[in-house]
Amino acid sequence: MGAVLVERLGALGRFADLPNLVRLNPNIEWKTRGNCAIALRLDLGEEELPKAKSITLETVKELADLDAEGTEPGVAFYVGHEMPPELKEHYKRTVREVVVIEEAELVARAVGAELCKLKTGRGVIGALAAIGAELDGCTYELLSYRVPGNRGTPRRIDPVSVADMDRRTFPRTFDNLDPSTGEIRITPHTPCPVLFGIRARSPEAAVEAHGIVRALEQVERWVVYRTNQATDAHIVAASIRDVEPYKSVAVECVVAETPRTIPGGHVVLRVRDETGEVDCAAYEPTRQFREVVRALEKGDVVRVYGGVKRKPGLPLTVNLEKVEVVRLAPVFRRLNPPCPRCGRSLKSAGRCKGMACKRCGLKLRGARPILEEVPRRVKPGLYDVPPRARRHLSRPSLLDSRTP
């Protein structure tokens, strides 16, 4: 829908910038499939505003699947050159907290924005957020769209060209392939209009990559969006006592227990800080990331990143998106010392009797087992889930210098 509006509104005036594509709080249970909102910013004269509003509303009514359960579109119009602080704050809240329609309506009245609802119109919450998003430290995504006749059928792009694109543009583009499996990650798995999407660190890299990918079906149109994807905009620094449903947090803490694997292959990590304890989970789809979590030991200092969903009847759990190993605790194993006479390992001679050698019979009353530090299977650094399990907002470790 955003790409169609870009074409239809482009005839009225000049776009002030790239369109915003804003991903919202990923923990909300009633989120839409894409969980996003779009904002288009145009330089228009006063006489062109009614036409722009009419085109927008007609396009939304035409293209929105209003018969689908959970589709509750909303449109927001704001006229002005300065961004009110109320809109900026509203954007931050929609990414990190729970916001209801009534709160969005209060913000709209405060800044003079106009809201238009279809059905319940829950979409006005995201519409206002997309307007208020300044997207500092943003990334970009080029979305290529299918012709209507192909929607709902398997997507057809040349996999060799995707691998070539990744080789030539990575890390200026990212999350094109899952490195552990080679699985293509630029194509959605839903029956939406998108053929493929390329995530990039600049618009130029996105366009270059698009030119390398070979579509085996007709492309209807494409557009580059400025996005909050891969920015960790949803994450807030917190203590364990602040962990609650619908929040995404970063908590520096200490591993409280040896990680345990539960049915289904999920790994549970218990952590603590001075305010309490909580479970963190690395689920089966995170694949090799679970091995990092399994390698942690009691006493390790870590920073866990993840979101919390509301699951009635189940314990509060942080769904891990990444883990930063801050400091490793030393781990030791007990070894019997060698016999000074024959070299064989000494054994206990009994309670308070020291140790003895079963080969040569030497007894050493003062001998004790020795402690040897065990090499760790993990080292300090930032580890995250593979692309197949990554949320849109989560920042990949490849964009961070703390990657080991």
SSE arrangement:
Layout: H1 2-10, E1 14-15, E2 20-23, E3 36-39, E4 42-43, H2 49-63, E5 74-77, H3 85-96, H4 101-111, E6 114-117, H5 124-132, E7 139-146, H6 159-169, E8 173-174, E9 194-200, H7 203-212, E10 219-227, E11 235-237, E12 248-255, E13 260-262, E14 266-273, E15 276-282, H8 289-294, E16 301-307, E17 317-327, E18 332-335, E19 347-348, E20 355-356, E21 363-364, E22 370-373, E23 381-384
Parallel strand pairs: 2-10, 11-12, 15-17
Antiparallel strand pairs: 1-4, 2-3, 5-6, 7-9, 7-10, 8-9, 12-14, 12-16, 13-14, 14-15, 16-17, 17-23, 18-22, 19-20, 20-21
Radius of gyration (Å): 27 Å
Question: Termini, distance in Å?
Answer: 41 Å
Percent helix, as a range, is 10-25%
CATH architecture of the largest domain: 2-Layer Sandwich
Per DSSP, the total helix count is: 8
> How would you characterize the largest beta sheet?
6 strands, mixed
Average pLDDT, rounded to a whole number, is 93
CATH class of the largest domain: Alpha Beta
CATH fold-level label of the largest domain: Alpha-Beta Plaits
Derived structural class:
alpha+beta
How much beta, percentage-wise? 25-35%
Say how many strands there are: 23
How does this structure look, described?
There is one protein chain. With 404 residues, the chain is α+β, with helices and mostly antiparallel strands. The protein has three domains: 2-132, Alpha-Beta Plaits, CATH 3.30.70; 139-227, Glycinamide Ribonucleotide Synthetase, Chain A, domain 4 (Alpha-Beta Complex); 235-330 and 381-391, OB fold (Dihydrolipoamide Acetyltransferase, E2P) (Beta Barrel). 21% of the residues lie in helices and 27% in strands. The chain has helices at residues 2-10, 49-63, 85-96, 101-111, 124-132, 159-169, 203-212, 289-294; strands spanning 14-15, 20-23, 36-39, 42-43, 74-77, 114-117, 139-146, 173-174, 194-200, 219-227, 235-237, 248-255, 260-262, 266-273, 276-282, 301-307, 317-327, 332-335, 347-348, 355-356, 363-364, 370-373, 381-384. The strands form six sheets. Strands 3-2-10-7-9-8 form a six-stranded mixed β-sheet. Strands 12-14-15-17-16 form a five-stranded mixed beta barrel. The longest helix has 15 residues, at 49-63. The model has no long low-confidence stretch (mean pLDDT 93).
